[in-house]
Amino acid sequence: MSDKDLIESGDMKIGWVRSHMPVLSIIRENFEREQPLKGHKIAMALHVEAKTAALVEALAIGGAEVTITGCNPLSTQDDVSAALNTRDNINCYAKYDCCSDEYYEAIDKVLDMKPDITIDDGADLIFKLHTERTDLLSDIFGGCEETTTGIHRLKAMEKDGALKMPVVAVNDAMTKFLFDNRYGTGQSSWDGIMRTTNLLVAGKTVVIGGYGWCGKGVSLRASGLGADVIVTEIDPIRALEARMDGHRVMSMAEAAKYGDIFVTTTGNVDILSKKHFEVMKDGAILANSGHFNVEINLEELTAMASSVRTVRKNIKEYNVAGKRINVLADGRLVNLAAGDGHPAEVMDMSFANQALCVKYIAETKLENGVHPVPHDLDMYVAELKLKSMGIEIDKLEPHQTEYMEGWDCGT
Ligand code: NAI
């Protein structure tokens, strides 16, 4: 594709999602009028696709200078990256399928602008700031973190006294994880798997590793598509929830024998490893929706395989003792590496939180450590979203408030 065609294609993608992100659009209009980010420099490492571009535009329109790179080498869309580079006050360094050196060079380039606010999905920028670029820490007002795995990393740093900047845990806003992680990952993981394999889900046995917010969504949609769902867990409460939601629950050692399609959503390592590959059926399909490509142990699978070949775009077939085991998108998060990520309406809420949290960081002197998204901001996003959907809800009447808050009425 020529540069002109790339830009045109990126512009079209961004225009489409923008028109399906009403909450972010309202925030963008307010930002344009109020210029709350004037003079701020924002460095970002997020999946560079169209919804992210809509967020980047809103921040730049709010007065900020923005640099961005990817947070995963396979999730970048080069047309979106090219379109972003035509905008004022935005520089994008992300490139699809770049090698590891290029990936980390781009993270350095993003930080070269000497940001005062960061936005991460997986804490790559913050990690770099605390290791090789510590000279930049003194300029930082704070950062935002988008995903569960990033928050785990940051809380571990905070516990060890190693976190030297304030970070807002955007993932933990209710208007983020209850919708993005559950309904977003639920739909987009199946979108990625179905468009990549072009196979039927109905009638298949699907094994979901982990029944957190992502696992719940992926299981829910697998059931809806007609699959027989098996869940694996390590947490007894979540295992019970999965059972009472109607799924079979068992260990992965057992489930590995039955699965036609496996989807990992734990944020942990080695959910699928040698002992599981050994007992899998011929033709098993493995996909990961957790943040890092560590949930399927590809080193062990490669060592076991007599041959590996690409059988279709984004599908590698490993020949293990005459059995074919198919891995989607090299075990990277399947909804982004083999799809377009979450639906725009869901990212509308996640990125509304991001934009409002950036403003909050710019206006508030926060202590070093991990901070929650302020409750009123979370509620504001929910209210705007409901309004955009044309939904009105009831309000408490004064006597109802009195009843709920009192202890002396009612029998
Ligand atoms: P969560 O903490 O709600 O759920 C993770 C679940 O995995 C927990 O119930 C935990 O008990 C379980 N688990 C941990 N180790 C396990 C093991 N060895 N076997 C079975 N289960 C195990 O986290 P959430 O929000 O569901 O996120 C999961 C992962 O997905 C994270 O890496 C997160 O960053 C990522 N994520 C990916 C998205 C995407 O677009 N693909 C979107 C949002 C989050």
TrEMBL record:
Coiled coil: none annotated. It comes from the Archaea. Pfam families: AdoHcyase (PF05221), AdoHcyase_NAD (PF00670). It is found in: Cytoplasm. Substrate binds at residues 121, 146, 176, 180. Binds 1 NAD(+) per subunit. Its cofactor is NAD(+). Its EC number is 3.13.1.9. Pathway: Amino-acid biosynthesis; S-adenosyl-L-methionine biosynthesis. Residues 181-341 form the S-adenosyl-L-homocysteine hydrolase NAD binding domain. It catalyses: S-inosyl-L-homocysteine + H2O = L-homocysteine + inosine. NAD(+) binds at residues 147-149, 181, 210-217, 233, 268, 289-291, 335, 342. One of its GO terms (biological process) is S-adenosylmethionine biosynthetic process. Belongs to the adenosylhomocysteinase family. HAMAP family: AdoHcyase. SAH is a product of SAM methyltransferases and is known to be a feedback inhibitor of these enzymes. As a result of this inhibition, organisms have evolved efficient enzymes to metabolize SAH via different pathways. The pathway found in methanogens differs from the canonical pathway, it uses the deamination of S-adenosyl-L-homocysteine to form S-inosyl-L-homocysteine for the regeneration of SAM from S-adenosyl-L-homocysteine. This is S-inosyl-L-homocysteine hydrolase. It comes from Methanococcoides burtonii (strain DSM 6242 / NBRC 107633 / OCM 468 / ACE-M). The lineage of its organism: Archaea, Methanobacteriati, Methanobacteriota, Stenosarchaea group, Methanomicrobia.
